[in-house]
Amino acid sequence: MEISRELVRTGSPKYVALANALAEQIRTTLAIGDPLPTERELQAGFGVSRDTVRRAIARLAAAGLVFNVQGSGTYVADPAQIRKGPRLTGFSQDMAERGLRASSRTLDCRIEPCPADTARALGVAEGSGVLLLRRLRLADQAPMALETARLLPGLFGDGLPDPEGSLDTQLAEHGQRIMRASQTITATNLTATEAHLLDQPVGAAALRVDRVGFTDRGRAIEATETLYRGDRYGYETAVERDPS
Amino acid sequence: MEISRELVRTGSPKYVALANALAEQIRTTLAIGDPLPTERELQAGFGVSRDTVRRAIARLAAAGLVFNVQGSGTYVADPAQIRKGPRLTGFSQDMAERGLRASSRTLDCRIEPCPADTARALGVAEGSGVLLLRRLRLADQAPMALETARLLPGLFGDGLPDPEGSLDTQLAEHGQRIMRASQTITATNLTATEAHLLDQPVGAAALRVDRVGFTDRGRAIEATETLYRGDRYGYETAVERDPS
DNA sequence: TATTGATATTGGTACGGACAAATCATCGAA
DNA sequence: TTCGATGATTTGTCCGTACCAATATCAATA
User: C12 C1' – A122 CA distance, angstroms?
Assistant: First the structure.
């Protein structure tokens, strides 16, 4: 493997720059199963410490690009097989990655008393006012999902969000970034109302995703229930074994 | 926070032992939002290097137990809100964690030609012989899921696996451990045959999980399709934002 | 009182070294 | 040829040090 000896750092830490450089070289010059240069070779080649090399490789391993074998080396993983784990995305980005154009039709946008289960998830008192946003989500103009979001009040200053835009983006503009979320995925048959909105036959199978979003401080700020059309949507995820 | 000064190491690395010790003390003596001792305090208290302390804390952070704030400290996260990510488990263990007793009824167990899509997932030639294992999975005696597994031949020496036992356990006994898997989750309506086996009405919504299991070397050895009853099963997962 | 600015504290990055554990290549013996 | 021992190689763990970046604290100032 050819080793470039200069790292481009645009404000990011050195190990991130090194990881990017390695990822690029893996894409361009290495095949699946090929070994990377040894850590000490990389250390010498890039003129960095082994600690930095190991951090960079750990980053690639976490992304599923490579895997380590103690005593042997570090090897390029199969990108077709090792899919990336589920990333936290909004609907728009999710659709974009599937090559679909996302749009939405707002069904409801107002302050309403919080139901019990949502209140528990958000850590607020039952019946206290939360922002309700109900939207029909379209992909390439055709109905894809029915989304009911409840957010803590005051996240958008005093006003309401723009129902047409990406919630995630608007939250970020107000200094609130959802860094992690917990989801429960179930299957359900559509009711008549839901089926009509989604342009599906009554009783059709739908994927129901209940999501609670947290900031990096662990504060729950958003609870969303989404009904995806079973015939159009699949949820991809990667799981790993417990360290044991 | 009280700091114990002795670490119990049962073969595991020091940072793992420290992480366990910290997790225990967090459970017993700290509340949500409380700050951990500073890294330098822990370093002195346990008599280890700061590197070891940081590794231990990184482990806890990855598990969602704590979170870091640069310049401020490390704080205890809310365990009720931050659920653990999905772990790679077999059906038996999955049910056990839900407090249900798993059993199974074998519907089919033989060698058969591999269909095209599975062949691609497993990286073998289409039509080559793979081990087919079809089982009805029961939880507390009631049908829960319909599982169709295809495995590379020869994983169990020359014979077939015991259809009643845990596949995962039997694989491990033959030196094959599935370390990661990629899954696609969809919703579907049950056919008449499937519905009958699962004791559900025809057309009931079911959660379909297509899983491909890989060894730590990235080799695919198992492809499983599982139909879970929509009224009994939910899939829980945690997602995180991309590092960006 | 409110704001600013200096200073200390805390986690984040980076360097260096040493040894352990797993693996691999080699060589010798059976 | 086959098997096993041996030593070299490679990743994993652990230690120590130094400095950077973000945050918190508090005194000085307007």
Answer: 31
